[in-house]
Amino acid sequence: MRSVAAATPRVDVQHVDLGARSYDVVVGDGLVDEVGGRLRPMLSSPRVVVVSDANVAPLYLARVERSLAAAGFACSSVVVPAGEGTKDFAHLEDLVERIVVVGIERTTPLIALGGGVVGDITGLAAGLLLRGLPYVQVPTTLLSQVDSAVGGKTAINSRHGKNLIGLFHQPCAVLADVGTLATLESRQVRAGYAEVVKYGLIGNAAFFAWLERNGAAVCSGDVDARRRAVLTSCAAKGAIVAADEREAGERALLNLGHTFGHALEAEAGYSDTLLHGEAVAVGMALAFALSARLGLCPPGDADRVVRHLAAVGLPTGFADLVHGAWSAEALVRHMTRDKKVQDGRITLILAHGIGQAVIRRDVEADTVRHFLAEAVAARP
Length: 380
Ligand code: GLY
Hints:
Elements lengths: L10 E6 L6 E6 L6 H5 L7 E7 L3 H14 L3 E7 L8 H14 L7 E5 L1 H13 L6 E5 L2 H7 L4 E6 L2 E8 L4 E5 L8 H18 L1 H16 L2 H21 L14 H10 L8 H18 L5 H13 L16 H9 L11 E4 L5 E4 L4 H13 L3
Parallel strand pairs: 2-9, 3-4, 3-5, 5-6, 6-9
Antiparallel strand pairs: 1-2, 7-8, 10-11
């Protein structure tokens, strides 16, 4: 695969090393105007299909289409409804049928222009159509730039849980334009920022310390701080994915905060009362608190995690959540249904300290239940 390396100095490139499925993650400001030029050297197809959603299309689709046309691509676009509700079989069926109608061959790339929902369903459509089309991620939210666009997980939701129906299908490039974050509402930026913090907590204490100093700048719109945060996050994710593409082992570290977080989201009904990143923020605080409780991690590190998340305006515990009736029993029930359950045991990502996350399958469900019951009861 040809590289989409920088044509201008205002981009950084992170290579994800997966042998024949390797690709570049390009991070920069203004990339939506360069999609065509960056893809032209690596794609032989004369045509592409752009998939976007009803929120993102009015903002960026015309710019992407112009750049594709300028680079000589014939381009068709398909716009899907915005929101998590799009990640179901009905919308997947509609999407693939519309893509078939516009005309595709095995080499026709799909371009996912949008946040995690667009990236996940477009990647899945690409994996299924003609038994596998190439696709490119152009993520426009902080959450998708630092997490879902990189790593090849594609999915829709089942009635019984999030992302239960999907494929590993790697993109052939990721173009993360931090300029698009300027149109993202601040609550969504903060929610994405929780995933940025995650990389510091998993394996990079120096990055966490940098975030303690620069998190406010990242959240408030400083483009250079955003570029560094996105690039460092993509480098961390790329390294983990390269080592364990299909999550046989260490890729599970990326679920720090997610086992608790998914349970919170499920209880909150996957509604706007609790965004995914907000649930992950609470989940990370809980994971560090449980680690400290189990004597794995210094309590001071758990406090530092809470202080930093709170400093940027993220929730860190049940007291910060508007949803009313939390039940430790119900939360543990969700955790035992998680995709990562193995032989009936909950997989928890805990930590020996900041930057030292570990995968643990030896914590009894009862221990988690008691810990959560106390955390729920501590709510004023
Ligand atoms: N978002 C977790 C992963 O990509 O593995």
